[in-house]
Fold these 2 entries.
Entry 1:
Amino acid sequence: MQLADVEQSLEELFPLHLAESWDPVGRQLGRDGQPIRRMMLTIDATEAVVEEAIAGKVDLLLAYHPVLFHPPKRWDGDDPDVRPLTRAAAHELAIWSPHTAFDAIPGGVTDWLVQPFGSGKPLRSAHTLGANRKITVFVPHKDHERVRDAMANAGAGSIGAYRECSFSAPGTGMFRGLDGTSPSVGVPGELESVEELRLEMVCPDTQISAVLDALRQAHPYEEPAIDIITLLPQPQPNTGAGRVVKLEKSKSLKQLAELARTHLGVDGLAIADADGAPKKHKVMAACPGSGAELIPEATAAGATVFLTGEMKHHEQLGALRNGMSLILAGHTNTERGVFKPWTKVLQEAFPTIKIMRSRRDRHPLRWI
């Protein structure tokens, strides 16, 4: 497979529109025609991991964290921030990052994080892409099929995996043409009525102009009545940032922390009881990495304890003041275990590519 083909399949697994707006996900390095025979999974594309990939003749590094969060001002091959990329480029090692898109998907990083506690719902739901406008036009019965087909051919009427979707309802249209008009029905100056169909089709923004041009060319009227309605995006089930979990049985903060510690395989983590926190918690929330921005959503969802990797000092104080107890496990500790089950998922998705996990990827800190 070539990188462009692999990338297309990766984007089906990790739809990039689900990533946070600030997140530079997707291709970090590489070109379309690169052959991909070996893929290595890593949380961070550090220099040690890049050298491991080069030594192992890896073609694609699937790095959870993007390499280019803060692009360098100059490409100095001796700069330690740039060196992993220059080394990877010199050996035609492509790099691709799913990051927060991986967090958001069902079965992704966040669902893996809350596994010991039960299934959760997103704290901030993701929304579907696709049609975001609805075009309504009124057409005489005999011209309905021609107008509908013209609109569909120009890009209207796609809903998910279905094409040429439309809705029609009968009614009576009335109009009076002024002097100088050339109505296709009746004569100027007289009130006319026509049996029409109300035709509705959805359409993405990108196709609006083409669809309206096609509609007007196919429509018999000199001035067809057209409405364009903005559609709100629909939330995607079980997809989005963070999770809130209703526990089957209430648990203390220490019990929840011990479940998290065992699941994450860490020696220890930090906990904090909020002011006035309950002795037993029934609802908890979680977000891998740094989840402080989701505390308001967690509070609104009824959670009284929040599991994440890290929070700044004043973010911790703010959460505690507002009644949210905390479990902090270390940033990448809340992420890196996901590649164990996902190695099999990716191997099934890419049967002709050898999938392996980095041996040199590790948490930058250790407990003493």
Note: The CA atoms of residues 216 and 223 lie 8 Å apart.
Entry 2:
Amino acid sequence: MEFAIALPILILLVAGLLELSRGYAAAIATSDAARSGARYAAGKTAFTDGPGMLSLCKLVTADLASLTSNVSCPLAPVGHAPPFTAGADFTSPTGGQAVVAVYCGISADCMGTANTLRESEIDVYVYYGFNDLNLFGGSITISGSSKAMTAW
């Protein structure tokens, strides 16, 4: 009798722990992808003129391959520094989708300019629509972000 009463509670606890671990893994993946993108762009010099948005998006998409293949990465960066607003600066991700938002400092396309720029800011945000098993209410947006200073 006691086991029958305790079993549903134990099942909820175990399922909750599994969902938290899945969510944590998604949070790590989004943060790693954002960090890789920012580091990639920041590592470019005046001689390479920066990577551009297309290359940055390809890198972030490759980093998220184990998490999702549905990645929305705009080819135009956000025109202002973070924080970004869902709906205005990026489209909120649906379940299982990742959305990337990038701010390139004073560069319009993360390509740098003929004049060497030092300490130009680049921010890469990755938002992931995490679908839980309705233990915590359904779809949750998990975000990962990274900021780096460029020197191209």
Note: The longest helix spans residues 2-42.
